[in-house]
Design a protein that fits this description.
By secondary structure, the protein is of the alpha+beta class. It contains five helices and two strands; from the N terminus they run H-H-H-E-E-H-H.
Length: 106
């Protein structure tokens, strides 16, 4: 991520609203839609559709990855290993149940 993308992401994170309309996103990003699209492609931002009075509008929000980017190192570490941690916990539980079933059958 280059410095311009980092600055735009920081502005969006500091914007104290859950989702941003296209107008708010434009003013927050300095009307540089190339950077916004790069952040969406890199999964730092999420784009979703909202239906208002029969019309479809695109809204934007910061993803979990975008929020974690400016966090402390231990939060980043947990973010990157949490899916592995889930797998380890499921494996341990499965192993314990399998062991108990085998012991009960013998």
């Amino acid at each position: 991520m280059d410095s311009q993308e980092k600055k735009v992401l920081q502005n969006i994170v500091n914007f104290h609203k859950g989702s941003l309309s296209p107008a708010e996103m434009g003013s927050t990003s300095g009307h540089n839609w190339k950077i916004v699209n790069n952040l969406i492609a890199k999964n730092f931002l999420e784009q979703f559709n909202e239906y208002i009075n029969g019309n479809t509008y695109n809204f934007y929000r910061v993803s979990e990855k975008g929020l974690i980017y400016f966090s402390k190192w231990y939060k980043k570490l947990f973010f990157y290993i949490k899916s592995d941690l889930r797998s380890i916990i499921v494996s341990i539980i499965t192993t314990v149940f399998t062991y108990l079933i085998i012991k009960l059958l013998n």
